[in-house]
Amino acid sequence: MREGEILALRKRPGERTAKLCKIENSLKAFQEEVEGYIEVVHFGRYALICNGEGKLLELDANFIFGGDLIVGTALFAQVDGDEFVSIEDPADLVNEIDKINLEIGKRLMEGA
Question: Which of 78, 83, 84 is nearest to 97 (CA)?
Fold first, then answer.
């Protein structure tokens, strides 16, 4: 993992919007943010980082992503190969998230 801080997007349960934040680019820092073991979901050049045991721990609901309920604090970071890096274009990240959720919505409607 590259050392130093990266610019990530943090979404906490109960907060209406996600916020850009600087976070130390280390496993320990990510685990502290999500309050436990991390689970990483890659999509395009981005990754969602959340608590891998969040549902078992009954963490508070946060948002729907790709048809799945994300619980607890979640982070979004850009990826370069296997490394987390700073988000270069937050608007592009938001567009990618919207595309994923829109596609899942379309699939659900077609199956109804």
Answer: 78
Using a 10 angstrom Cβ sphere, with 0-12 exposed, 13-18 middle and 19 or more buried, the burial of residue 6 is buried
- Residue 46 Cα to chain centre, angstroms: 9
Flag whether pLDDT at 108 surpasses 80. no
The Cα 110–Cα 112 span in angstroms is: 6
Residues 95, 76 contacting (CB under 8 angstroms): no
DSSP assignment letter at 39: E
Q: How far apart are the first and last CA of the chain?
A: 43
> Chain centroid to CA 10: how far?
8
pTM of the model: 0.87
